[in-house]
Write a structure and sequence with these properties.
- By secondary structure, the chain is of the alpha+beta class.
- The chain has a single domain, classed as OB fold (Dihydrolipoamide Acetyltransferase, E2P).
- It is 17% helix and 45% strand.
C-alpha cells in the first residue's frame, strides 16, 4: 500500500528519518534504518558503478555503501565530520534481507508524518529517479521528499548479489 492509499484508508502517521543532501531534505521509512554511523573509508570494489563507493565491514557482515549524492547525480562534496552512513536493512532481490549503507551529508530528525499531509510525487517527465519519490510532505517549513529507498537501491543490491554468487 503506497502513501496516498494509506491516507485514503485513514492510516494515522508514519515515522521517517530525514537527512540532507546539499540544500534538500529527504526522508526514508525509519523501519528500514538499522543504524547511523559516522563516515569511515570503505574498501573499493573494482568495476563497480561510480555511486557504489565500496564495502564496509559491519561486525563481520560485508555491507555495500552507496553515495546518494552520486546516485542522484548531484555535485560531489567533501566528506566532513557530519557526513554519515545510514545502514539500512532491505528486502533482498531473492528473498530475505540485505544490509546496505547510504552516505548522506547529514542526518536531521526522526519525524512523524500524517499520511493525509503527504502529497503525491510530482510528475517529472519520466526521469528515472522520480520513480523513487513516494511523496512530498511539509515539515518545519521545509519540503521533505520521501524516498522509496528500497526500490532505489534494488538494482545495486541485485548487481552486488550476482557478483557475489559468481565469485
Amino acid at each position: 500500500m503506497d502513501l496516498t492509499e494509506k491516507a485514503r484508508n485513514g492510516a494515522a502517521s508514519e515515522q521517517f528519518l530525514t537527512f540532507r543532501l546539499g540544500n534538500e531534505t529527504y526522508g526514508l521509512n525509519i523501519l528500514r534504518v538499522k543504524e547511523i554511523r559516522g563516515w569511515v573509508p570503505v574498501t573499493g570494489i573494482p568495476q563497480s558503478p561510480p555511486h557504489v563507493l565500496g564495502i564496509l565491514n559491519l561486525r563481520g557482515a560485508v555491507v555495500p555503501v552507496v553515495d546518494l549524492r552520486r546516485r542522484f547525480e548531484l555535485a560531489s562534496a567533501d566528506f566532513t565530520p557530519v557526513t554519515v552512513v545510514i545502514v539500512l536493512s532491505l528486502h533482498a532481490p531473492k528473498g530475505g534481507t540485505r544490509e546496505c549503507g547510504v552516505v548522506v551529508d547529514s542526518v536531521s530528525d526522526v519525524v512523524d508524518l500524517d499520511a493525509s499531509g503527504i502529497r503525491p510525487a510530482p510528475a517529472l517527465n519520466g526521469h528515472s529517479l522520480a520513480n523513487f519519490i513516494l511523496g512530498v510532505a511539509e515539515c518545519d517549513d521545509r519540503m521533505v521528499m520521501l524516498m522509496d529507498i528500497e526500490g532505489l537501491l534494488q538494482q545495486d543490491l541485485a548487481a552486488a548479489t550476482e557478483r557475489n554468487e559468481a565469485a
